[in-house]
Specification:
It is a single chain. This protein is α+β, with helices and mostly antiparallel strands and 149 residues long. The protein has a single domain (29-145), classed as Alpha-Beta Plaits, CATH 3.30.70.100. Helix content is 44%, strand content 21%. A four-stranded antiparallel β-sheet has the order 2-3-1-4. The protein is flat, with a radius of gyration of 18 Å.
Length: 149
Amino acid sequence: MKTWIAAALLGVSAQPVQAQQAPAEQAAAKTVTFELYYRIKWGSLAEFKELYKRNHEPLLREMQKQGFLVELHTDEPFTHMAGGQRWDLRVTMTYRDGASAVELGGEWDTAFEAAKARLYPDKATFEAEEARRFALVEEHWDIIVYRAD
């Protein structure tokens, strides 16, 4: 299943190579949108958002400046939701291509690590604050969004 998802994100079909008509450049240019949902432990949302804005969002903005992300925004629900359905923060990221979204050890990973080292030279503090941010998460899930238009 995971292989199928990666292939779909990278724009590769399950058809034999001879039957594929689209050029590799066209397939690679297909954007991929993820929605990341966070349910935060009760009473901890303000601290989570502060740590997110200080440590993680600047890294994502840097990746956007470098062209890996073509869209990035954060939303909060306007109304309250019931327990199992509740989410407190949604981050929507549109990657420029499937490789940026899913490739392990690729260009994204190299650029992300370089940006992290440049933006956060105090690695110990950064890692401690990120560990604290994740400790505030009650549940987290990611959804690949297909735009039907």
